[in-house]
Each structure stands twice: as structure tokens, then as C-alpha cells.
Amino acid sequence: MSTLKKLDDQLSKFKSEDDRAPLPDGKIILFFELNSNELPEQEAAKLDRVVGFYSKHPDSQIVIDGYTDSRGDPAYNSHLSKFRADMIKGFFAERGIPESQIKTFGRGPQNPIADNDTAEGRKKNRRIEIRIKMKNQ
């Protein structure tokens, strides 16, 4: 199953009033290539759903966690994961979400979602996770 198909499947599970934006208990996961900090253009449409949800819930907070696979220098991985998270924060800020409402974290290789011993597993671990927290949470 392709990465885009997986993202579409994930997003189809989210529900909202009218635009399938993620609910506060939902999570969007974006995947990156090895040593890359470029967000594929098709992923921007997924992020626009977060912007749409935020516009209806401006008291919410967005939390962005960046992750890498376990290969390479731990300090580099930590820096890369934070850079990716900050890049997504910039995307949201450019679309009108106040930076004060966005928290970013560079987690490096922490919390893998797949086995780092395989190429496919490492690819799944190079990711950004975006969560929305409502004010009352």
C-alpha cells in the first residue's frame, strides 16, 4: 500500500462538521524520505484540513512531534526531527494559525511505530505526527 493511500485511509477515519478535518483525538501522520526535510506537495492538502479545523476551533492547540529512524548520529536525528516539526509549524503559521498555538518537539528515533531493522520499518519511523488538543483537554 502506498504512503499516499495510507494517509488517505487515515484521514477518511476522521470526521468533522463538513470537511473531514481531524477531531481533537485524531492524529495525522506525514512520512519523509531518508535525510529529507521536504514535504511532498500532495501532503499540503492534508495539512490544509488541520488549518480548516483550527479556523473553526481557534482556542485549540496544535502539537507537532517529529521523528526519525534510528540510523545515523543521534544528535543529527534529533535536530532533523525538530527541523521537520518546525517546518510544519511554519506552514501553519503562513496560513494564519498563531505560532503561540503550535508546539513542536523533535523526538529523534524515540517511539518507533515500526521495526528499524528493515527499510520499510525505517521509512514508517521517519514521520511527523500532528495532534489537536482542545482547550478543555
In words, what does this structure look like?
By secondary structure, the protein is an alpha+beta fold. The chain has one domain (3-133): OmpA-like domain (60s Ribosomal Protein L30, Chain: A), CATH 3.30.1330.60. It is built from four helices and four strands, in the order H-E-H-E-H-E-H-E. It is elongated and about 40 Å long.
CA radius of gyration is: 15 Å
Strand order of the largest sheet: 1-4-2-3
Strand content: 15-25%
The general outline is elongated
What's the total count of β strands? 4
CATH homologous superfamily placement: OmpA-like domain
* N-to-C span: 34 Å
Q: From N to C, what is the helix and strand string? A: HEHEHEHE
Helix fraction? 25-40%
Briefly note the structural class of the backbone: alpha+beta
Tally of individual domains: 1
What kind of sheet is the major sheet? 4 strands, mixed
Overall pLDDT confidence: 82
CATH class value: Alpha Beta
Poorly predicted runs are 2-8, 10-21
CATH architecture: 2-Layer Sandwich
> What fold name stands as the CATH topology?
60s Ribosomal Protein L30, Chain: A
Number of helices: 4
List the helices and strands and how they pair.
Blueprint: H1 3-12, E1 27-31, H2 41-56, E2 61-66, H3 74-94, E3 102-106, H4 119-125, E4 127-133
Parallel strand pairs: 2-3
Antiparallel strand pairs: 1-4, 2-4
Notable features of this structure?
137 residues; single chain; four-stranded mixed sheet; 60s Ribosomal Protein L30, Chain: A
